[in-house]
């Protein structure tokens, strides 16, 4: 990756070249090439080959994707675990049963928000500051659409664990790279960096994951900020995250919602956007699930209001 800063060559092409070189002799290395390889290995650790994930089970869109019925047997396990807890307690040190865990790491889970990173390629081309922050919001909300099946908590990464992936963008013939690392165990902090130099954007940040238990419900709080930088414009957008609220753990249907206020702010252009993720009210009415509302402000001027469902 020594030429990564100046080259737009994708990781996949790099590994294709590697495979071609290694198979020139019928798939076996000669003694000479074996010695050369051992010399290279001594210089540093070898990277793991990138394997593309072709199939992924994604849930259907809508309210029913956020509801799950827990079996009585599993509820008994949860009840025996939660009897040891107190309301308001942090769950980061609690070992949870595997049936409520998603079969992937939190570092992998964070990459879902960049599934539609090609929208940022369009945002960097917008001429007006107002047009750019609108496109940034469009990308931001698209990150909540990609949702794996089931209401599951991802595994806590171990200290030093990393996760890498990339997305190819045929429209711009570019590639967005993602890398995340668990940089602290207690408290659990995940750091990440996303980069597409050809299309002119980078994102970096760190997130402290907290969980609060309230009896029949719990909240997962992502405390931290992501910083989106448009390289050609030297503009930085500081972005926060909503919290996830899960209710119906002990009785009722287990339901997941997003709540809280988030902000997207660029000090250079004096653009500010605020979004509120609304929890379902106690007395439901039509269209009351997954609601958002917000506004876009430039300086002291209200440019737009936002209303709808995420």
From TrEMBL:
Gene3D superfamilies: 1.10.287.2720, 2.40.160.120. Residues 1-41 are annotated as: Disordered. InterPro entries: OSBP_sf, Oxysterol-bd, Oxysterol-bd_CS. Coiled coil: none annotated. Pfam families: Oxysterol_BP. Keywords: Lipid transport, Lipid-binding, Transport. Transmembrane segments: none annotated. Residues 1-18 have a biased composition (Basic and acidic residues). The keyword Transport applies. Belongs to the OSBP family. This is Oxysterol-binding protein. It comes from Ilyodon furcidens.
């Amino acid at each position: 990756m020594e030429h990564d800063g100046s080259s737009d060559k994708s990781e996949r092409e790099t590994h294709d070249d590697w495979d071609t070189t290694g198979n020139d002799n019928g798939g076996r290395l000669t003694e000479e090439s074996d010695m050369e390889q051992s010399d290279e290995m001594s210089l540093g650790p070898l990277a793991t080959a990138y394997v593309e994930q072709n199939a992924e089970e994604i849930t259907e869109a809508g309210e029913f994707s956020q509801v799950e019925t827990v079996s009585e047997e599993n509820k008994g396990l949860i009840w025996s675990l939660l009897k040891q807890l107190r309301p308001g307690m942090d769950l980061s040190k609690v070992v949870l049963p595997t049936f409520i865990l998603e079969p992937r790491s939190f570092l992998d889970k964070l990459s879902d928000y960049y599934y539609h990173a090609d929208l940022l390629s369009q945002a960097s081309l917008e001429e007006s500051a107002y047009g750019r922050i609108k496109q940034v919001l469009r990308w931001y909300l698209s990150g909540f659409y990609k949702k794996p099946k089931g209401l599951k908590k991802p595994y806590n990464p171990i200290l030093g664990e990393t996760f890498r992936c990339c997305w190819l963008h045929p429209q711009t013939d570019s590639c967005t790279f993602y890398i995340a690392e668990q940089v602290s165990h207690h408290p659990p902090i995940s750091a990440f960096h996303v980069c597409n130099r050809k299309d002119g954007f980078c994102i970096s940040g760190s997130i402290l994951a907290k969980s609060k238990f309230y009896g029949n419900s719990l909240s997962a709080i992502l405390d931290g900020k992501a910083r989106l930088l448009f390289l050609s414009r030297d503009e930085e957008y500081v972005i926060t995250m909503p919290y996830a609220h899960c209710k119906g753990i002990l009785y009722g249907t287990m339901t997941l919602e997003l709540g809280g206020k988030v902000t997207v702010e660029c000090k250079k252009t004096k653009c500010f956007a605020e979004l509120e993720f609304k929890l379902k009210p106690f007395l439901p009415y039509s269209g009351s699930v997954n609601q958002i509302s917000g506004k876009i402000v430039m300086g002291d001027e209200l440019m737009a209001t936002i209303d709808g469902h995420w």
